[in-house]
Write a structure and sequence with these properties.
3-stranded antiparallel beta sheet; Pnp Oxidase, Chain A; 32% helix; 209 residues; 32% strand; alpha+beta; Split barrel-like
Length: 209
């Protein structure tokens, strides 16, 4: 299938700067295609729930996929997709990071925007927050499950028990429950663990009111 466009459904996560991360098997056709030509496009579909799906938002990003061997990124991926932890260590699975070059946003019917890669990525660096992410997630999930439940119910209008925090970045935190995901946006950028903690405490207090 060399030189032929090929679309496929994959799991995806993003690094703290919003660069997409993919965990792919060498046996998959899309992995073989990337090995031949690393240029890829990734479609993010936000049209669920719209009676006319063409009026809903969707974003196509264009870039190049490169294999990365980074335990932090792999841990971030498996935290967002718990089932992937079963096969993430298999010899034929590799983690790819997509270097975003541009994007094509359809914000609704007839509302089309072409975006540069820099418009889609978070530019500020947050190395301390990235390094502390596993510890923050463990602390929140083990010690503050009540706060996570309050975020889900009080701030995001979600129901059900067992919500967990699967990721944190300068702009917010990701929650997960039995395959359902939710995004908790921060009111201001948090570049350090201390700033993230302060924001999480403030949001928990607000959610409980």
């Amino acid at each position: 299938m060399r030189g032929v466009p090929y679309a496929s459904l994959v799991l995806i996560t993003a690094d703290l700067d919003a660069s997409p991360l993919l965990l792919l098997s060498d046996l998959a056709q899309h992995s073989r295609n990337i090995a031949f030509d690393p240029r890829v496009s990734v479609l993010f579909d936000g049209t669920a729930g719209y009676q006319d799906r063409l009026t809903g938002p969707r974003l196509t990003i264009i870039g190049q996929a490169t294999v990365v061997e980074d335990p932090r990124l792999l841990a971030r991926f498996t935290a967002h997709h718990p089932a992937s932890a079963v096969y993430s260590g298999f010899a034929d699975f590799r983690l790819y990071r997509v270097a975003v070059a541009s994007g094509h946003l359809v914000a609704g019917f007839g509302r089309i925007h072409r975006l540069d890669g820099c418009d889609l990525l978070f530019g500020a660096k947050a190395p301390a927050l990235a390094a502390a992410e596993p510890e923050i997630l463990e602390h929140m999930n083990e010690q503050h499950a009540d706060a996570i439940a309050a975020y889900a119910r009080g701030l995001l209008g979600r129901s059900g028990d067992g919500w967990r925090m699967t990721g944190i970045d300068p702009e917010g935190a990701d929650l997960w429950r039995d395959g359902e995901t939710a995004r908790l946006d921060f009111h201001s950028v948090a570049l350090t663990p201390e700033a993230a903690r302060s924001t999480l405490v403030e949001l928990a207090n607000r959610a409980r009111q």
